[in-house]
Design a protein that fits this description.
The chain has six helices and three strands. It is mostly helical and 107 residues long.
Length: 107
C-alpha cells in the first residue's frame, strides 16, 4: 500500500482501532491522529505515553473495545474532541526532536 493510499484510509475512516498489546513506539496511532482519525487503543506498552489523553484507551480488546466503538459512533462531541486532542498530541512529536534526543545519547 502506498503512503497516499494509507493516508486516504486514515482520512476517511470513522475511527482507527488499534488493539495491539505490544508496540515499540506506536507510530500507527500517531499517523492516524495526524490524519484526523479518532483513536481507540489498548492501555498498554508505549501507547498511553504516545496517545496521552487524545484517544480512548481500554484495558482489553474484548467487551471494552465494543463499548469504545459504540461511544465514537454515537457521540459526535466525543469524536470531535478526540480529533482535536489528537492534533495537539501529534504536535508534541517530531523527527527533528527525536534525532536530537538520539544524538544526545551518543555524544
Amino acid at each position: 500500500m502506498s503512503d497516499e493510499e494509507l493516508a486516504s484510509l486514515y482520512e476517511h475512516c470513522f475511527a482507527f482501532i488499534f488493539p495491539s498489546t505490544y508496540e515499540g513506539f506506536g507510530m500507527p496511532v500517531l499517523e492516524a491522529m495526524y490524519h484526523n482519525a479518532p483513536v481507540i487503543c489498548l492501555d498498554s506498552s508505549s501507547l498511553p505515553e504516545v496517545v496521552g489523553e487524545a484517544a480512548i484507551r481500554i484495558e482489553n480488546a474484548d467487551e471494552a473495545m465494543f463499548g469504545a466503538m459504540e461511544k465514537i459512533l454515537t457521540d459526535e462531541n466525543l469524536r470531535q474532541t478526540l480529533i482535536t486532542n489528537g492534533a495537539h498530541q501529534v504536535a508534541k512529536f517530531s523527527w527533528a526532536d527525536g534525532a536530537k534526543t538520539i544524538h544526545s545519547l551518543f555524544t
